[in-house]
């Protein structure tokens, strides 16, 4: 048994072995975001040194030389008029995510990506780089050794690469220097925003919170928003959120089918239903045969040898086709299971699902990527 069938069999065994009561419901913290509590993006420009001859070339990346000269001058080294052509330096962009309520002195991870023609950042060290926010203020500074997961091996007649050696990371490589002042505990109303708006799920969150606290604190504004009224609550907003964020709520998912044509993946929602329909599907084969003919000129003529293309295209039906009658009590997942047992390819399954959707037999949203 190959790896894929073993994995399918293992997943099926686990799902059938679990009782229905063992299916855990998601917590409120897993399906909502708190308005105002968010991350912020930081970006900075820096240079990486210590590369083993895999840095930027001065010809294609002149800004690398300018950055290196500026850095050396700041360190007291006079390089005016010098022709600097190092191969162990690369210009990079440094990005990081500034977490909510980050404090001075805390550290965050950074990502480093080359913007020149460097071949690899492996073994390099990021020099002190300020990281700025959207307001152009410096919130953190980054420095440290770069960890690269990609590899690029080159030989005289061949080359091989895995991943991206020009992108790496520095774990805990940035230190927070400026805080974002946000008085969260001074708020009288806290808003919860659903990541996937749904009226049923929002109503269930409202009922669950009010039942837990014992009074009408939560009110549903729309399908994606629940407001928490904290005027009559003695605890701080942080305490209130800590007490309700771990409450379990049954999430209502829409009937949806997602087809990824690139990978041939088909994902079905639980509530996908089909109407009574007949399906006819036949296998069509297309055969193209190339038989080029070489035309030679006559002896002692001024003609040239040419190749005349000759193509033969044959379209046939490998089978007579089957017609399947489906009743209303047959689910789409059962249909997919049957087609999979017959050896139907994912591409053919996707074509059948699209045709059934066009015929109005599938009652679900179809998403094709």
From TrEMBL:
It comes from the Bacteria. GO terms for cellular component: bacterial-type flagellum basal body, distal rod, P ring; outer membrane-bounded periplasmic space. Keywords: Bacterial flagellum, Cell projection, Cilium, Flagellum, Periplasm, Signal. One of its GO terms (molecular function) is structural molecule activity. Belongs to the FlgI family. Assembles around the rod to form the L-ring and probably protects the motor/basal body from shearing forces during rotation. The basal body constitutes a major portion of the flagellar organelle and consists of four rings (L,P,S, and M) mounted on a central rod. This is Flagellar P-ring protein.
């Amino acid at each position: 048994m190959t790896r894929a069938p073993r994995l399918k069999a293992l997943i099926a065994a686990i799902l059938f072995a679990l009782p229905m009561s063992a299916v855990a419901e998601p917590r409120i913290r897993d399906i909502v975001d708190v308005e105002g509590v968010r991350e912020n993006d930081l970006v900075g420009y820096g240079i990486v040194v210590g590369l083993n001859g895999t840095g930027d070339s001065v010809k294609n990346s002149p800004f690398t030389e300018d950055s290196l000269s500026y850095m050396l001058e700041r360190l007291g080294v006079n390089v005016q008029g010098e022709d600097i052509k190092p191969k162990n330096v690369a210009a990079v962009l440094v990005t990081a995510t500034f977490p909510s309520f980050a404090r001075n002195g805390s550290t965050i991870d950074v990502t480093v990506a080359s913007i020149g023609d460097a071949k690899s950042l492996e073994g390099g060290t990021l020099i002190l780089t300020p990281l700025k926010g959207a307001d152009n203020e410096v919130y953190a500074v980054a420095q440290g050794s770069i960890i690269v997961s990609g590899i690029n091996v080159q030989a005289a007649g061949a080359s091989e690469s895995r991943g991206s050696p020009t992108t790496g990371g520095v774990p805990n490589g940035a230190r927070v220097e400026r805080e974002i002042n946000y008085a969260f505990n001074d708020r009288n109303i806290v808003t919860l925003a659903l990541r996937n708006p749904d009226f049923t799920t929002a109503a269930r969150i409202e009922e669950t919170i009010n039942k837990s606290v014992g009074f009408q604190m939560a009110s549903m504004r729309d399908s994606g928003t629940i407001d928490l009224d904290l005027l009559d609550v003695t605890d701080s907003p942080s305490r209130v959120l800590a007490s309700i964020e771990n409450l379990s709520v049954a999430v209502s998912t829409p009937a949806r089918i997602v087809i990824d044509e690139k990978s041939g993946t088909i994902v079905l929602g639980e509530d996908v239903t089909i109407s009574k329909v007949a399906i006819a599907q036949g296998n069509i084969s297309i055969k193209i045969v190339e038989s080029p003919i070489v035309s030679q000129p006559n002896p002692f003529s001024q003609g040239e040898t040419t190749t005349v293309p000759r193509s033969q295209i044959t379209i046939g039906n490998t089978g007579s086709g089957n017609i399947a009658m489906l009743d209303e009590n047959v689910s789409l997942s059962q249909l997919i299971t049957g087609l999979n047992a017959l050896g139907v390819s994912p591409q053919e399954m996707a074509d059948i699902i699209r045709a059934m959707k066009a015929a109005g037999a599938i009652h679900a949203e179809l998403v094709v990527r």
